[in-house]
Amino acid sequence: MDPWLIWLIAAAVLAVAEIFTLTAALGLLGGAALVTAGCAAVGLPLPLQFLVFTIVAASTVLFVRPVVVRHVRQPQAERFGVDALVGRSAYVVSEVTGLGGRVRIGGEEWTARAYDETLVIPPGATVDVIEISGATALVYPQG
């Protein structure tokens, strides 16, 4: 079997393994194997193929992986769906207690409960959305 084909198979195996581990290291090693397959295809001798693989793998793992990991671990810039409602202000449409009520959040009416079950929040009050539990907003009066 030709050496370039072996390197290509190794690159594919490492790429598939990366899908299951999500560490970025195996994917970079797969990239190094792919570069080495190209070098082997143009006729580079086997000892130099190992040298190319070692240099490319070491440089990507040492220099590229930290950048990739830093970008992956960044907090999400924007919140979507019901997560975006947490922290917003709402207008009380009907009295909110620990058992129920209704609030308007940005033009939509939501069922609501007081975050502190002992509170009774009158209609017309402004509240903060503390949490969304299912289709119910848990709210607390502003002020």
Residue ranges: pLDDT <50 for 5 or more in a row?
A: none
Classify the secondary structure makeup into a structural class. alpha+beta
What does the radius of gyration come to? 28 Å
Q: How many structural domains are formed by the residues?
A: 2
* Order of helical and strand elements: HHHEEEEE
Q: What's the average pLDDT?
A: 92
* Major beta sheet, strand line-up: 1-2-3-5-4
Outline, from the CA principal axes?
A: rod-shaped
Count of DSSP strands: 5
Hey, roughly how much beta strand do the residues contain?
15-25%
Helix content: 40-55%
* Contiguous helical run count: 3
First-to-last CA distance: 76 Å
Largest sheet: 5 strands, mixed, barrel
Structure notes:
With 143 residues, the protein is α+β, with helices and mostly antiparallel strands. The chain has two domains: 3-72, no CATH class; 81-141, OB fold (Dihydrolipoamide Acetyltransferase, E2P), CATH 2.40.50. Helix content is 44%, strand content 22%. It has three helices and five strands; from the N terminus they run αααβββββ. It has helices at 3-21, 25-41, 46-72; strands at residues 89-94, 102-105, 108-114, 126-133, 136-141. It has a five-stranded mixed beta barrel. The longest helix has 27 residues, at 46-72. The radius of gyration is 28 Å and the shape is rod-shaped. The N and C termini lie far apart (76 Å). The relative contact order is 0.10.
